[in-house]
Write a structure and sequence with these properties.
The complex is a heterodimer of chains A (about 375) and B (about 350).
Chain A: H1 2-7, E1 10-14, E2 19-23, E3 28-32, E4 44-49, E5 56-61, E6 65-70, E7 75-81, E8 90-96, E9 99-104, E10 108-113, E11 119-123, E12 128-133, E13 140-145, E14 148-154, E15 163-164, E16 181-186, E17 193-197, E18 201-205, E19 216-219, E20 225-230, E21 236-241, E22 246-250, E23 255-260, E24 267-272, E25 278-283, E26 287-292, E27 298-303, E28 308-313, H2 317-322, H3 324-339, H4 342-356, H5 358-366, H6 371-379
Antiparallel strand pairs in A: 1-2, 1-28, 2-3, 4-5, 5-6, 6-7, 8-9, 9-10, 10-11, 12-13, 13-14, 14-15, 16-17, 17-18, 18-19, 20-21, 21-22, 22-23, 24-25, 25-26, 26-27
Chain B: H1 2-43, H2 46-54, H3 70-102, H4 131-138, H5 143-146, E1 154-158, H6 164-176, E2 180-182, H7 190-199, E3 204-211, E4 214-222, E5 228-237, E6 255-259, H8 264-274, E7 287-294, E8 297-307, E9 313-331, E10 340-344, H9 347-350
Parallel strand pairs in B: 1-2, 1-3, 6-7
Antiparallel strand pairs in B: 3-4, 4-5, 5-9, 7-8, 8-9, 9-10
Classes of the chains: A alpha+beta (about 375), B alpha/beta (about 350).
Chain lengths: ~375, ~350
C-alpha cells in the first residue's frame, strides 16, 4: 500500500467515497479505501494538501468528516468531525499553520485549531459554491456562490471582508445581471482574483485598485463554468463547463486561446501543474484526462469507474519522467536551434510532433501535398 | 413494299453494323488510348516521361479516368467490374474445390469482418465482477426501484400542440408501458411540472418532442432526482402501419429484454429503460418489450409470443416500433441550461471513428 501511494502523482476523490491515486509513469490507478465499508455519505467533496511537501492529503466528505491520508504510508491516518451534513456540503478546505479551514454551503467558515476544540467562525453568506485560499498569503481566503458575490476574508480580522465585489452594471435591457460564482483562482504575484460564473463569464477582480467591479470580463460557451485553474504562466486560465468543454483563456485581453477536446461529461475538478504545461481534468464521465497546454493534445486518459469530484496534482519528480515524450522533443528542439536555421527548425518540429502525437498526425495528413498520400494517412 | 423491305433491310444492316462498329470502336478505343499516352509522352512535359520510365510497367499503362467520353469510360468500367467478378468467382470455386479435396484437414472458414466485429475495445465495458461498479449501481438513483421499494408510475406528454401522429404514438406507448398516464401539455414548463409529478408519486416523466408533424425526440426523466436522458427518435411505426400484427396489447405487464448494453454508459441507459416497467412480468400475458442496442441505436419492439412446442416459438409484433439514439444524459432532473451533463454526444469528436460506439 505504501509503495503504491508513493508513486502516485495524481489524487482524485470520487462520488463513491473512494480516494484514487494515479501514477502516470507506471500507467496504473489505485483505490485507497475499505471496499466493505463504502457508503455514499463518504462521497468526497473537497481535497487539499495537508502540508507543504505534499505528504498528506486531506479529504472532506459529505457526512462532515475530514480524513487525513498519508501518501508515504498509504493509509488513512486520522479523521475529524468538522461540521454536520445539515449545513450542506464542504465547498472549500485549506490548511494554515497547523489549523484547518473549512467552509460549507450554508456559509459557515470555520478555522479548526489543531488540538484545541475552539474555532473561529465567520458567516460568509448563504449559497456558497467555492472557498479558496490564497497560496501566497495563507491567511487570506476568498468565497463566492449563488447570489453571493466574491468576498475576500482575512482570517486574522474575521469581522468584515477585506474585499467585497460589486455586481456589474445593468445589461442592455437594464436588468440586473445575476451573480453565481462557481470557482475562484488567485493570480500569483499580484492581488488579482479570477472567478468563473454559472452564467459562462470569467471575471478578473483587482482589490488593490479602488474599483470593486471586475477589471476584465470574458465569456465562454453557453453553459455554466464549473471549474477554473491558473496555468504556470500567469496570463492564461483554463476553465471547464457542464458540457465537458475545456478552454484556455488569455487574461490580458480576455480572448479564448483554444479548446481542449475529449471530455464528454461535466468538468468537476481541474488543476494545472505548477511548473509543467499540463492540466488534469476529471468529471462526471468517470475519466481522468491530462492534456498538454502547449499543443492542446491529450496526453493521458485513465478510466476510473466512479464519477470524480476533485483532483489534486502533486508537483513531484515523477511527473517529469512520465512526460518523457514532450521532454525529449524539447531537448531535441534546443539542440537544433543552435545549429540550424529557424526555417529548418520549424519544419522538423512539425514532423516530430506528427510522429509522436496521433492527434497531430491527422492534421498533418490534411495538409499533405500529394493527393494519394493524403488518403493513405487518413485510413491509418 | 419492295422498297420498304429494302429500307428495312438497310436499317437492319445499319443496326448490326452499328453494333459491330461499337465493338470495333471499343477495340479501336483501346488501341487508341494505348497509343495516346505514347503520343502524349512525347509532346507533353518531361516529368511524365520520367515517371513512365522510372516505373516498372512497359508499355505505359493508362488509367480509365483519362478517357473523356463518358459512354466509353462507362463501358470500360463495366467490363472491368465483370472481369473482377469473374476472377472472384473463380477464386471462390478454387477454394471450395480445395476445401472439399482436403476434407477434414481444410483450414477453418474465415469469418467476414463486420463493423460489430471490428468494434474498438471500450475500456468502460463493465466487468460483471467489478465491486466498485456494483457498489456504484447499488447505490445510484435507481436503487429504490431495483431494491423493490417503488413501483414505476409514468407520466407521458408531448411538446406543446402535438399533431395526430404524436398523439397516437403516446397513446400506444401508454398501452405498452403499464401504469402510464397521458396528459396534454398545455404549454407548461417542464421545470414546474416536475415538482408536481414528484408530489403525485410519479417516478418517470416521458416527453415526446415533435417536429414537422412527426415525433423526433424523447426526454426521459427519472423523477425523484434521477438522471434525464434525451434521445433522438426515428423510425416510428404506429400500430396500423405494421404488417401482420397481432391484436391490441393486453393489460398484463410485459417482460423486458435489454440487449447489448455493455459499457458503463450503456448500463446506466439500460437501467433507465428497465425501470420504466414493473418488476414482475405477468407471463400469462406472453408479451415482451425489447430494447436492443446495436451500434449506439436502441431498437424498441413489442411482441407477443407463443410456444408451439419446446423448441419453436411464434411471435407476433404488436405495438409501436421506434429507434432511439442517446443525445445526452444529464445528472439531476430536467435542467438543460444549468444541469450537469454526464454524457453529451459530440458529433465531431465521437463520430470520427466508424468502429467506436459508446453504449
Amino acid at each position: 500500500m505504501a509503495a503504491k501511494s508513493q508513486i502516485c502523482s495524481i489524487w482524485l476523490g470520487s462520488e463513491t467515497g473512494i480516494l484514487k491515486g494515479v501514477s502516470l509513469s507506471k500507467k496504473q490507478a489505485f483505490n485507497f479505501c475499505e471496499m466493505n465499508s463504502l457508503s455514499r455519505d463518504q462521497e468526497v467533496c473537497v481535497m487539499a494538501w495537508g502540508d507543504e511537501n505534499e505528504s498528506e492529503v486531506l479529504v472532506g466528505s459529505v457526512n462532515g468528516t475530514v480524513s487525513t491520508f498519508s501518501t508515504d504510508k498509504g493509509i488513512f491516518t486520522g479523521s475529524r468531525e468538522c461540521g454536520d451534513p445539515s449545513q450542506g456540503r464542504f465547498t472549500g478546505l485549506a490548511v494554515t499553520d497547523s489549523s484547518l479551514i473549512t467552509c460549507v454551503e450554508s456559509g459557515l467558515l470555520k478555522v479548526w485549531k489543531e488540538g484545541s476544540t475552539d474555532t473561529v467562525e465567520v458567516n460568509v453568506g448563504s449559497g456558497i459554491c467555492r472557498m479558496r485560499q490564497n497560496p501566497s498569503q495563507r491567511h487570506r481566503v476568498a468565497t463566492g456562490g449563488k447570489e453571493n458575490p466574491l468576498k475576500v476574508w482575512d482570517l486574522e480580522r474575521p469581522d468584515k471582508a477585506i474585499f467585497s465585489a460589486k455586481n456589474v452594471a445593468h445589461d442592455w435591457l437594464d436588468m440586473r445581471v445575476p451573480v453565481w460564482v462557481r470557482d475562484i483562482g488567485f493570480i500569483p504575484d499580484s492581488d488579482k482574483i479570477v472567478t468563473c460564473t454559472g452564467h459562462h463569464q470569467v471575471r478578473v477582480y483587482d482589490p488593490s485598485t479602488s474599483q470593486k467591479r471586475p477589471v476584465l470580463e470574458a465569456q465562454f460557451g453557453e453553459y455554466p463554468l464549473t471549474a477554473l485553474s491558473l496555468t504556470a504562466n500567469q496570463n492564461t486560465v483554463v476553465v471547464g463547463n457542464t458540457h465537458g468543454e475545456l478552454a484556455t483563456l488569455d487574461l490580458r485581453k480576455g480572448l479564448m486561446c483554444g479548446c481542449l477536446k475529449g471530455l464528454s461529461g461535466a468538468v468537476r475538478g481541474l488543476q494545472c501543474h505548477p511548473s509543467l504545461p499540463l492540466v488534469a481534468s476529471c468529471g462526471l464521465d468517470r475519466f481522468l484526462r491530462v492534456h498538454s497546454l502547449e499543443d492542446r493534445s491529450l496526453q493521458h486518459k485513465v478510466y476510473l469507474k466512479s464519477r470524480l469530484n476533485c483532483v489534486l496534482l502533486s508537483s513531484r519528480e515523477q511527473e517529469s519522467s512520465s512526460v518523457d515524450v514532450t521532454g525529449d522533443v524539447e531537448e531535441v528542439k534546443a539542440e537544433e536551434d543552435k545549429d540550424e536555421d529557424e526555417v529548418w527548425d520549424t519544419m522538423e518540429t512539425v514532423t516530430e510532433k506528427s510522429k509522436k502525437r496521433p492527434a497531430e498526425k491527422e492534421k498533418a495528413a490534411v495538409t499533405g501535398v500529394d493527393g494519394k498520400k493524403k488518403k493513405k494517412l487518413a485510413k491509418k | 413494299m419492295f422498297r420498304s423491305a429494302s429500307a428495312m433491310d438497310t436499317t437492319k444492316l445499319s443496326t448490326s453494323e452499328s453494333v459491330s462498329k461499337k465493338k470495333g470502336k471499343k477495340a479501336k478505343k483501346q488501341v487508341q488510348s494505348e497509343e495516346k499516352p505514347v503520343v502524349e509522352m512525347d509532346t507533353v512535359s518531361e516529368v511524365k516521361v520520367e515517371k513512365s520510365t522510372s516505373g516498372a510497367t512497359f508499355p505505359p499503362s493508362f488509367s480509365m479516368s483519362e478517357i473523356k467520353n463518358k459512354q466509353r469510360r462507362h463501358m470500360m468500367f463495366i467490363r472491368l467490374k465483370q472481369e473482377k467478378r469473374k476472377q472472384k468467382l473463380e477464386l471462390k470455386k478454387k477454394m471450395k474445390r480445395e476445401r472439399e479435396a482436403l476434407g477434414d484437414k481444410a483450414p477453418p472458414k474465415e469469418v467476414p469482418k463486420t463493423i460489430e466485429n471490428q468494434r474498438v475495445y471500450d475500456e468502460t465495458t463493465v466487468n460483471p465482477e467489478d465491486e466498485e461498479v456494483a457498489f456504484d449501481e447499488g447505490t445510484d438513483e435507481f436503487s429504490a426501484y431495483f431494491n423493490r421499494l417503488t413501483n414505476p408510475k409514468v407520466l407521458i406528454t408531448t411538446s406543446d400542440r402535438p399533431r395526430t401522429r404524436t398523439v397516437k404514438f403516446i397513446e400506444q406507448l401508454a398501452t405498452v408501458i403499464p401504469d402510464a398516464h397521458v396528459y396534454y401539455r398545455r404549454g407548461l414548463a417542464l421545470k414546474r411540472v416536475i415538482p408536481q409529478c414528484v408530489s403525485h408519486g410519479f417516478t418517470y416523466l416521458l416527453v415526446v418532442n415533435e417536429d414537422r408533424k412527426m415525433p423526433n425526440g424523447l426526454v426521459l426523466c427519472h423523477l425523484p432526482d434521477g438522471p434525464t436522458a434525451h434521445f433522438k427518435v426515428s423510425g416510428v411505426r404506429l400500430r396500423k402501419e405494421m404488417k401482420r400484427r397481432g391484436k391490441e396489447p393486453t393489460e398484463h405487464t410485459p417482460e423486458v429484454i435489454l440487449n447489448n448494453f455493455t459499457t458503463r454508459l450503456g448500463h446506466t441507459v439500460g437501467r433507465l429503460l428497465a425501470a420504466l416497467f414493473p418488476h414482475d412480468p405477468q407471463f400469462v400475458g406472453r408479451q415482451v418489450a425489447t430494447f436492443h442496442n446495436q451500434r449506439d441505436f436502441i431498437f424498441f419492439r413489442f411482441h407477443r409470443y407463443i410456444f408451439k412446442n419446446e423448441k419453436r416459438v411464434g411471435i407476433q409484433e404488436l405495438g409501436p416500433r421506434f429507434t432511439l439514439k442517446l443525445r445526452s444524459l444529464q445528472k439531476g432532473t430536467f435542467d438543460s441550461k444549468f444541469g450537469e451533463y454526464e454524457w453529451v454526444h459530440k458529433r465531431h469528436e465521437m463520430d470520427s471513428c466508424r468502429r467506436k460506439f459508446h453504449l
